[in-house]
């Protein structure tokens, strides 16, 4: 078999078979196939696409290129959740304890963030002492005992994807549906859960800007999951503005803990309950999401979900008292209001710019080696559809700089205020099974 023939076959719009896809992935991972041939094939796939079978074969080959986490020592049906990423997305800290409070095991492998705000691990590390550097044995023990554990991703999950993603990034081939879907799913499938709920974001602050593209990506990922033996459901949710009111690290943990205490931040609570319901159904605990939702809401009201958050934090060596008293979480020195320059209604909030403004404060990394400041972040005071008077604060910047000018400017540009009222965007667009 020759890589040249595989490239030409795809360039001409033909369907690659499993053997050819494996030949490419194995050869590329072990260095026998050079970058220039891999990028030619990626570009051919970009223009010609791949069908469901090809995409599933590509995903499986990437899963097989590295370590697969064996979670067979965990009792029960394990459900994982993945978000395609968005600003203010703290859903994991809510659905983890919520689903676990029903006795359903949640075993999460997570990463750090390179971008606007921290990743799941960075945010959790806002809690003093909390660590995700636990052994496989501790991870399994914690899931069996507490029904919830979060571990840092090991270096060797789907190494083929790591190499190919880096290549796509510099060759204009990231935005190919089958390549994105197989990339995301290869990492999820290697992480060992039995079922997966995907939160596919759509809108200005999302990877996929249009509903059509987001649905196409979701369908592709659900097909891959189901083809490869994992029950997979995708929720398409809105990312035309940050989720909830808090963007940062400690302040996102705070907002998540408050939801588990019963606070009603509408979009955040709604999305979390939807995802948690879908997870509970996939785990086989309920027939219908409505029944799961009732039980989940009950566990918020009776305090079990909040107690589970504290139990999980303490099991991973974190200071549980910070969850009881959220004012003990790291606090920034200054709280700088950004006032509206005109009155009217909030028409748009560019989520990405809010994320960048948070990063300028130190909530995220600009380069891999940057250190995160857990105490800084942004509290949104106004969201789409809200009325605002001239001079009223749009956001509060929690900063350790007295005059965070760059963030102030970024926030001002992120908000569009108009004289006519716009309705808040629909939160849940679709569920794809
Ligand atoms: N995220 C991934 O992990 N892979 C992609 O290709 C795109 C986004």
From TrEMBL:
One Pfam family linked to the record: Glycos_transf_3
GO cellular component: cytosol
First-tier enzyme category under EC: transferase
Record flagged with keyword Nucleus: no
GO MF entry, a single one: 1,4-alpha-oligoglucan phosphorylase activity
GO biological process: pyrimidine nucleobase metabolic process; pyrimidine nucleoside metabolic process
Cofactor: K(+)
SUPFAM superfamilies, per database record: Nucleoside phosphorylase/phosphoribosyltransferase catalytic domain, Nucleoside phosphorylase/phosphoribosyltransferase N-terminal domain, Pyrimidine nucleoside phosphorylase C-terminal domain
Boundaries of every Pyrimidine nucleoside phosphorylase C-terminal domain copy: 345-418
Enzyme Commission number(s) from the entry: 2.4.2.2
Substrates-to-products reaction catalysed: uridine + phosphate = alpha-D-ribose 1-phosphate + uracil; 2'-deoxyuridine + phosphate = 2-deoxy-alpha-D-ribose 1-phosphate + uracil; thymidine + phosphate = 2-deoxy-alpha-D-ribose 1-phosphate + thymine
Gene3D superfamilies in UniProt: Nucleoside phosphorylase/phosphoribosyltransferase catalytic domain (3.40.1030.10), Pyrimidine nucleoside phosphorylase-like, C-terminal domain (3.90.1170.30), Transferase, Pyrimidine Nucleoside Phosphorylase, Chain C (1.20.970.10)
InterPro entries for the chain: Glycosyl_Trfase_fam3, Glycosyl_Trfase_fam3_N_dom, Glycosyl_Trfase_fam3_N_dom_sf, Nuc_phospho_transferase, PYNP-like_C_sf, PYNP_C, Pyrmidine_PPas_bac/euk, Pyrmidine_PPase_CS
Family stated for the protein in its record: Belongs to the thymidine/pyrimidine-nucleoside phosphorylase family.
The protein's assembly and partners: Homodimer.
Function: Catalyzes phosphorolysis of the pyrimidine nucleosides uridine, thymidine and 2'-deoxyuridine with the formation of the corresponding pyrimidine base and ribose-1-phosphate.
Protein name as it appears in the record: Pyrimidine-nucleoside phosphorylase
Organism, as annotated: Salimicrobium jeotgali
